[in-house]
Sequence to fold (152 residues):
Amino acid sequence: MDKKIITRGSGETEILGSEFSKKLKVGDVILLFGELGAGKTTFVKGVAEGLGITERIASPTFVLLRSHRVNRNNIKNLNHVDLYRIEKPQELESLGLPEIIEQEGSVTIIEWADRLLDFNLKKSLSSGGQVYRIYFKHLNRGQREITIESYG
Fold:
């Protein structure tokens, strides 16, 4: 089921992420799509806050992965992956994405999920986690349309 939300600024986008975090379970994967500055990392900040993470959340564009300790709803780790710099399937293999997704007790958020290319996400989801696809679109005056889809 698709859900469309309009946020009016980064504060509302962060609150949406915090509210969204309440439904997350171990093994879930959240795929984020949208252009630069569309609100993806702001949403992740809200998810992290909702999971009780107090450290600073920054997009892992240059390191590709940041892992944050969590102790909520049986979740032990929030893996925050940024694929902005990925151009070839071999780069996904060297990143170890299947192992990241399957890490015990984790939830994984992937920014720039369109860069997954031919990666078989379903094959990597043996834990039975839910997959969410979230699309961010700029509107006008700081507004964003955020569409949340779930499958899996």
Q: What stands out?
A: The chain is about 25% helix and 35% strand.
